[in-house]
Amino acid sequence: MKTSLNQIVIIKPDDWHLHLRDGEIMKAVLPSSYRWSRRAIVMPNLVPPVLTSKDACSYLTRIKACIEKTVDFDPLLTLYLTEETNAKDVVLAFREKIIKAVKFYPAGATTNSHNGVKKIKKIYPVLSAMSEEGIPLLIHGEVTDPSVDIFDREAVFIEKILAPIRLEYPDLNIVMEHITTKQSVDYILSENSRLAATITPHHLILNRNAIFEGGIRPHYYCLPVLKREVHRQALINVAIKGHKKFFLGTDSAPHLDKVKIDACGCAGIFNSPYALEILTQFFDNHNALENLEKFTSINGANFYKLPHNKEKISLIKSDKSFHMPEALETSEGPITLFNPKMQVFWQIVN
Ligand code: DOR
Ligand code: ZN
What we know:
The chain is an alpha/beta fold. It has one domain (about 1-350): Metal-dependent hydrolases (TIM Barrel), CATH 3.20.20.140. The chain is built from eleven helices and 14 strands. Helix 3 (about 85-95) runs parallel beside helix 4. The chain is globular and about 55 Å long. The structure holds (4S)-2,6-dioxohexahydropyrimidine-4-carboxylic acid and zinc ion. Zinc ion binds near residues 17, 251 and 253.
């Protein structure tokens, strides 16, 4: 890595948590990821979900068909864990290098999660096989019990679901995805190197006030929902130090504006287009540019035991902040981009 006041050169980043969707939306959003990232862990919550090695194969083919020939970008697929998931099929998909990990959604926790897990013990045989095979488990860590306050669901998940899984399968590699709370940060720091976490740009940059500023702001609604400032500070503290257990997962989750701006709008923030520029500015604002590369390009690869990317990416800081477009136009309608509500002076050098 090279940094000066106005320029930074880092290893090309990876996005360890990304929603690419399918069809026309995927075609429209994919370039905003491969513009700045070399690999991405791709979420399986399609309709219908990516349940089997066969589904993953066909999704991979569809993704690759949308990537220009001259572009080097590796989509790393995941399977969607259900109570019916076949352990042998998971192992086969991993050994054949069709998938990199398995995603666990508690049923009803978020977008397209209704096929997820209700009775946790039912997935234990699959977790056992994954632990033996070294297949990472990626977790949406929120309980779905409606009697638990939405702001407490992540903390309760640790106590009720995650801690027992860790006790039963101490060798299972686990990524707590898109963590949002101080409890998660503390828990991950207290556990061994088999447990790590992704952090999104939006949970680093905004607290829950953003959802309600002057009215209801659907484009700041995601799950897990943005939290109080004290939690955001806990995330910032580990991210800007480049702590090895924490790495970038944008959780970029595009939804057409027409389904976000609705009486029952979808959860998800579409942040992939300028995620790197925004993060660079964020690290700069915290005088932590020297740790940006660890967060975006090193820690995740190390956790997944993958080589660091050979490619580099360079950003320069200009005198004027740049103007981001408000939305990406797709053949099905606009998708509003994440607005970080801060000036961004850093830009990728092509
Ligand atoms: O806000 C979210 N959107 N959180 C998730 O966990 C899923 C995602 C989506 O797929 O839209
Ligand atoms: Zn996600």
